[in-house]
Amino acid sequence: MAVPEEERGRPCRRRLEGKVAIVTGGAEGIGEATARLFAREGARVVVADINEGKGDSVAEEIRSGGGEAIFVKVDVTREEDWQFLIRATLASYGKLNILVNNAGVSEIADIESTTLEKWDRTMAVNATAVFLGTKHAIMAMKGNGEPCSIINRSSIDGLVAEPDLFAYCASKGAVTTMTKSAALSCGAKGYRIRVNSVHPAYVHTSMTKGEAAGYGISEEDYLERMRKIHPIGVGEPLDVAYMDLYLASDESKWVTGAAFTIDGGVTAQ
Length: 269
Known about the structure:
The protein folds into two domains: 15-200 and 236-261, Rossmann fold; 207-234, no CATH class. The protein is 45% helix and 14% strand. It has helices spanning 29-40, 52-64, 79-93, 116-141, 166-188, 208-215, 219-229, 237-248; strands spanning 20-24, 44-49, 68-73, 98-101, 148-153, 193-200, 259-262. It has a seven-stranded parallel β-sheet with strand order 3-2-1-4-5-6-7, with helices on both faces. It is globular, with a radius of gyration of 18 Å.
């Protein structure tokens, strides 16, 4: 397709130029990759995490590389922390265009071995926090007159199930359908806010060792197990971050209420 005449000779615009983004769980793994990628694409990024040391380092490294970022310490299960996070974002950058609800936890346990404590913690971080973030982001975004995007981190386990991740599957299933409901609500009210969910399969991150320990096997054995069930291999954080980038950008302006699977072919089997 030919480039329109008015576009010829213009410098290439970064995909998130002029936008402000919050990324929860931004201190490591997929969240860190997303925060760094967003900054490279021109967004001013708020790295939100409970891990102050790692989160502050990520924000500092973004700034050292020429990007704009701040760190805000947040417990995503606490509504008052969300309110503080939104206030800090608006105070620093004047608006909010993008929220990536990325923070999450997993518990290796089937239904019989899932304690109420494990259930409550998993649901609090993976589902309640997404509700709180989505709610408060909408209230901050709806009046700014600009295109906005909320990206909720679900999982393939929000679409299909695994026997040893009972509470995790329940929490990610909740994210899948609450995302659709929020998207419909924003559309019905005429808000310029899109809400979508992203569903990764296994991604190799710094948390792999802990996941392996939950199954009582070595990290390498766990990786080999995951390689066998992913037709084109296990994922890397940046694989998911690029999906986040598409949904955060105006390229996806007609996309809302959708569930994006990025899983190396796992759910195609």
